[in-house]
Amino acid sequence: MSRYSIAMRPHFRVPALAAALTLLLTVGCGQPANDSSKNKKGPSGPTVEPFTKAFSLNGGKVHPYSKFIEISGFRLSEAKSGSLRIRMNVVNHSGADLGELPMTVQLTSATADASDPALAEATVKVALGPNESREIEATVPTKLRLYELPDWQFLRARFAITLEDK
């Protein structure tokens, strides 16, 4: 029997094979497991739509101001039975004063196709200065109850500026 107990042994050696395997797994043979810089084709998963998307009401052109507008921060509540209160932020990302913009805003779910009907549609007006954001509110009729609508992170907005081109 040894004069040292297992806990008091003077030196414990790791087998060379275990050390090599640990080093190999840690370093990964010099190849990162997920190198996205070499992926030139883009993500392989489904495409994600932006939160805000401009559209045309009558099949015409999209208004030129649309590229500067973002609608986000949706908050839904029931004003009364059969009506929905929508609060949202409208952002002007341009350095120009856009003035008062009349818009039609449609709320859809994140998984909805372009041909699917909107969950709610509101007509609003907002005055936006350069690089400004405003919170607006609209009350719209709906047949759905609040708990039947998607949660805020699953909502997307489509909007059309109904101002005539200058």
Q: How would you describe what is shown here?
A:
By secondary structure, this protein is mainly beta. Helix content is 7%, strand content 37%. A four-stranded mixed beta sheet has the order 1-7-4-5, with no helix packed on it. The protein has a three-stranded antiparallel beta sheet with strand order 2-3-6, with no helix packed on it. Strand 2 (69-80) and strand 3 form a beta hairpin. The protein is elongated. The termini are far apart.
What is the helix fraction of residues, given as a range?
under 10%
Strand order of the largest sheet: 1-7-4-5
Distance between the termini: 99 Å
How many helix segments?
A: 1
Tell me the CATH topology of the domain at 52-161: Immunoglobulin-like
Can you give the mean pLDDT?
77
Helix vs. strand class = mainly beta
Strand content: 35-45%
SSE blueprint:
Elements: H1 16-27, E1 52-54, E2 69-80, E3 83-92, E4 99-109, E5 120-128, E6 133-141, E7 155-161
Parallel strand pairs: 1-7
Antiparallel strand pairs: 2-3, 3-6, 4-5, 4-7
Quick rundown:
7% of the residues lie in helices and 37% in strands. The protein has 166 residues and is mainly β.
Features:
166 residues; mainly beta; Immunoglobulin-like; four-stranded mixed beta sheet; three-stranded antiparallel beta sheet
